[in-house]
């Protein structure tokens, strides 16, 4: 069979809907400055889909630092991978400041979060080791586990935040490593990006009393938003010391590109010499590195940004609950709104929100969520206002009434 012919008739679970979805539900173009008010298909929309949690994307000090670094260095410097010719004092400075902030001895910069955590897992565990992980871990973690399994390694999964089953999987892992002579890596997330609930980091760390494992936490949505200082979900629970490998991306609160891992200095050195996605990739460009230093400085010195975020979070989530909406078990800024309806209804609901109410948010349907469930995800930021919240709740309430009345049941999008 010709591979291209196979691909033309099998576009995958998401790609099969590309004809109807492309440019609107998938790959939409939001235009203008990163802000709650942007333009979509020529119209202004109130946007709740950007992970610009504490509003740094267009902060004037950030814009100035980015522009000055680009003027000073261009986008190419440093050329080459870190190991070969891409090392700079600024990269090292950023790594140490990030590590200090999250309470770890050392850190290492990563070009991207997705490839970064994959490469961390790949470098940390070999075929003798066992990975235990939460079932709702991000796709990047799953791909790292696939790399581990491709080497002949073993993994055990426990249902989301189910501590009894986590303990059971650790028992299985312990028995397996007694045979192989390997170790155990336990992986979860600080904040789960779709549901907004928190990994039970305190309870997982407590399992170290009974099991010998190392603990990797992906805190992409927790860094900058959770904890007293914004140092993450481990700080929120008071168990940062129990996290052996702390990982986060710059794509959320830092409003940039890149990521980092923080842990013991000797383990950082091992990772630097073994993470394939970093060894064989160009170093993070200087404007992104210097820009990240400025973002970290603001995150640490302007607590009012996180305070404003949580003001909006609390107002939005309390308002939705008061209006009768189900927002699940979120304990973070991530705000899911769960409704009952079929896939065509979800499409019409989202279109009505965008076209007639000017509210842009992301929607998820089966197979990401169970059949009959519509999940609309709102990401509040420090840039949103009380008026934005009030208007959005009214728009959601109006659309919920239409949904319950059957107004969105047409199989033809836009007919409601």
* N-to-C SSE string, H for helix and E for strand: HHHEEEHHEHEHEHEHEHEEHHHHEHEEEH
Content-based structural category: alpha/beta
Distance linking N and C termini: 44 Å
Helix content: 40-55%
Corresponding CATH superfamily of the largest domain: Type I PLP-dependent aspartate aminotransferase-like (Major domain)
CATH topology of the largest domain: Aspartate Aminotransferase, domain 2
What's the quaternary structure here?
Answer: single chain
Number of helices: 16
- The average pLDDT score comes to 95
The CATH C-level name of the largest domain is Alpha Beta
The number of distinct β-strands equals: 14
What features would you describe in this structure?
There is one protein chain. This protein has 416 residues and is of the alpha/beta class. The protein folds into 2 domains: 3-53 and 303-404, Alpha-Beta Complex (Aspartate Aminotransferase, domain 1), CATH 3.90.1150; 60-301, Aspartate Aminotransferase, domain 2, CATH 3.40.640. It has helices at 3-9, 12-15, 18-21, 60-73, 89-101, 113-124, 139-150, 163-180, 201-206, 233-237, 265-272, 276-279, 286-301, 303-322, 343-356, 386-404, and strands at residues 30-31, 37-40, 43-47, 106-110, 130-134, 154-158, 184-189, 214-218, 245-249, 259-263, 335-340, 359-360, 362-364, 373-378. The strands form 3 sheets. A 7-stranded mixed sheet has the order 4-10-9-8-7-5-6, sandwiched between helices. Strands 1-2-3-12 form a 4-stranded mixed sheet. A 3-stranded antiparallel sheet has the order 11-14-13, covered by helices on one side. It is globular. The mean pLDDT is 95.
